[in-house]
Structures are given as structure tokens and as C-alpha cells.
Amino acid sequence: MSLSKYPWKGKLSDEECCETSSIISVKNLSLSYDEKKAFNEISLEINRGCVTGIIGPSGCGKSSFIHCLNRMTELYSNTQVKGDIHFNGTSIFDIRVNLLELRKDIGIVFQEPTPLPLSIISNIELPLKEHKFNNVQDRAVQALKDVGLWNEVKDKLKTPANNLSGGQKQRLCIARTIALEPKVILMDEPCSSLDPISTDRIEELIHGIKGKYTILIVTHNLAQARRVCDYIFAFWYDETSSCGQILESGTCAEIFQHSQNKIIRDYVGGIKG
Amino acid sequence: MESLTKWLSWLFGLVLIIILGYILGDIVLVSLKHFSWNFLLESPYSAGRKGGIFPIIISTLLILCISLLAVIPIGLTSALFLTEYSDRNNKSIIFIRKSIEILSAVPSIVFGLFGNAVFSVYLGFGFSILSGGLTLAIMALPLFITTAEKGFRSVPTNYRLVASSLGMSKFTMIISIIVPYALPSIFVGIILSIGRALAETAALIFTSGYVDRMPESFFDSGRSLSIHIYDLSMNVPGGDVNAYKTSFVLIVLILTTNALINTVLNNWYKKRIAL
Question: What predicted TM-score, i.e. pTM, was given to this entire model?
Fold first, then answer.
């Protein structure tokens, strides 16, 4: 596998990759479960069309953070969100916001590949029908082609999605999300339960669809962050406030090559973590 | 100690099988000796000592239909309310759930008297298939709700999260994912309800009555198979053989509905959900 086939791999230039207009801006966001704080007063901007990575050790609120961005946290009991999130200029907590539309525009891919207990094709068609798209069938087929799953499943579209392999399931979940034409795709450790080959395919996919979609990816895999991300936010567990916070942020090269923060430098260098 | 418990459980299991086997064997042997297809197609006469049980089978099926038509929609919506639309730890919800559990332990004669007072007398349905069916429905509902609720609770939370994350409405989620996934439990509930309804005697004597003619409408009285068995064996000297044969028909009816529902359901589930 040569690097020239994957020109984005090992990309470590300082140049800015894409437009620098912000699509999501987070202001002083805090989240707590019961009395326990997950993270405190986080503010950041997500750039349109870029792949933004969120790295850091377990338990520093990375997943919780991206679950706030389409208000998934409201589905868990005892969560409390403070602060504000603007998506395309309007607050997502505004009472005029249609929650179902918001979740269509900001899709999420979970850590565990979770196809719905339906056939492969229905997994994509059901949400499309729910959002009243036309040409549901064509769109579903296109989404399967976009994630490179079409050739593998075209003869068994009507069979249960649960019969697929882990990597295929996860690509189906991504297809299901991009079929809805979201503006932002949140990925919560999408490769953590996959083998290296499936991981490779997903990274290829991320590279293929970036620009068209804004992607926010939480990952434990630093090499992966280095391969796919344009920007990186490094979260860390802060002992004094006993909750997560952002230690450093910047372009991929800034974090991986000349980090200003000793903890992060040790972390990305593999000395600490 | 371990071998003692092992032997004891074998022993009691064996005792149980022998008792059940004896009852079944007795019924099957006596029935087959006197069995003819005409028994299924003729009307009874001489208080059931002679003739067949055709009108009784029809009444039983009609009563069963009415009770299922009432149990399934009411039971499903109640179970959905308890799982999907209410907070599990809310005090009034806990109270409702406890009440349902207590109702499922109430003796059937109480339901019979209740059905008689409400359906036969107050609502004026008289001794009819309608009163009987509705009474059986009320009797089977607690059991059905509890079973369906367990089924809905067994749907993995992840599916609910994923459906919400795709911006699907709660209604679509329930119709397309939760109910299909919980279908096996729902059908267990239906099978249990059918079993409870077919086995019931006490509640029906006061509501559907025991007229053994062919019913002409839902407002006619109709005798169920279990009442027929009770009547023949308790009140009619010389009705024993026909009581045996009716029991045989009842057992075959229950076994075939169970087998049918299970096969259809398993095939469907494998094709669609595959876990």
C-alpha cells in the first residue's frame, strides 16, 4: 500500500486545508451527569467542510461533547447542558428549532455499528421516507455506492442488515447518515470496534466525502487523527476542576509536530496517555 | 448435596411428566376409540350425550375472536404507554403497573361476576357471546400487557438512540422498529391469552351462558368448549365419552394454534431481523 495512492496520509503541512468559515460555534458549553461534570466551559469553532478531530484519553468528555451538538444528550437521563451552540448562525436550543430537522442536518455515527433491525435497503430508505425525500430508492443506492458498499450488497439488499460484518455495518450506518444530506457528520470513534482493513476503508471514505460535509471525529487512535484530520482539539481531564477541558487546538501539523503544550506533546508523541 | 438436588429435580420432573402423560394419554385413548368426523360437524342432542359439538366450536371461536379483538389493541397501546410514553419511576405509573400485576392474580370467578354485572346487566348485552368475549378480554389483558411490556423493554436502547439520531419521529420508531422487534413477545402474549380464554369456564357461565344451539349473532348465548366439558362431566350422567372427545378437540385446538403462530412468526423473524 503506497502512500501515493493515499495522498492525504501523512499530510503534515501547515497550510490551511479548506474554507475557514465556521459552521458550528460553541460558547461556554458545560455538561453534567447528575452532579458529576463531564466538561466545563468549552468554547470552539468548527470549520465548514473540514475534518476536525477530537483526541484525548478516555473519560475527558469527548463523546459527551459531540453528543451535545445535535442534542442527543437530551435522550439520556439526568444530563444538564449549559452554554450555547450555534449552527449556521442560529442557536440549536432555540424553541423554534425543529429537533428532527436538526438531527437530520447534524448526523451522527456511533461507536458501535448499529444498523436498525431491518433489511439493508430499509435501513437507508426508512429515514429518507421519514424526511419526505423523493426518489428514495435512487438515493439509497447512491448512498451505498458512496460508501463503497454497493458491490458487496447489491444482491442481498432485502436481507437483514444484522447479517453484515462489523465493517460493513459501520459503512451502512455512514451511508444511512449521508443519504439524509446532512451538513455535519459527527463520528463517535467510528473505527474503534473495526479491524485495520475496515478502518482503512472508513478513512478512505472520510477523505472522499470531506469538503461536501463537515466532519467531526472523536478518536482514540492518534495515527488515525493524524491521517484524516485537518484540525484537532485535544481534550484532557483536568484534576483541579475534575472534568474535561481543551488543552490545545490547532491544525493537524501544529498539534502533531510543534505542540506548545507539554502534556499534549507527550501524549501525541506516545510518551504519555 | 449437588447430586441430591440433581436427583430430586429429576424425580419431580419425572412425576410431573407422568401425571401429564397419564391425563393426555387417557383423553387421547378414549377419544380415538369413539372418534368420528361427524362429531365435529353435528349439533349436540340429548344434553350432549349424543350428536356432535359443531355449534360449540363455533361459539368458542366467536368468543375467542371478540376477546382477541379487544385485547390486542387495548393491550398493545397500554404496554406502549407504559414503556415509551411514561417515566418508569413516576409514582402513578408504578401504581398502574402494580394494579395490573394484582389484576392478573384475581380469580376468574370475580371477573365473571364483574362481566355479568357490567356487560350482561348494565350494558344490556345479556347472556351473550359479546359479554363472554369482553369478560375474557378483561381477564386476559393484565397478562397480555405484562408480556408485551417485557417485549418492548427488551428492545435495545441503542435502536431508540439511532432512530432519534436520524431525526425519526417517535411514531415511526414505534411502528417500524419497536413493535416488529417485540413481535415474538407480543405473540407469546397472544398465545397466553388464547390459552387463558379457551381454558376459562367460571367467568363464561355468568356471561356467555351455556345454550348449546348454534349462535345467530354476537348477542346470542353460546356455550364454549370448556363449559361443555364441565357440563357433560358434572351435570349429565352418561356424558363422559363426549366430554373426553370434547377435551381432545380443545387440546388439539390449543396445540395447533400455538404451533401455527410459532412457525409463522419464526420464519418471518428470521427473514427480517436475523439476530
Answer: 0.83
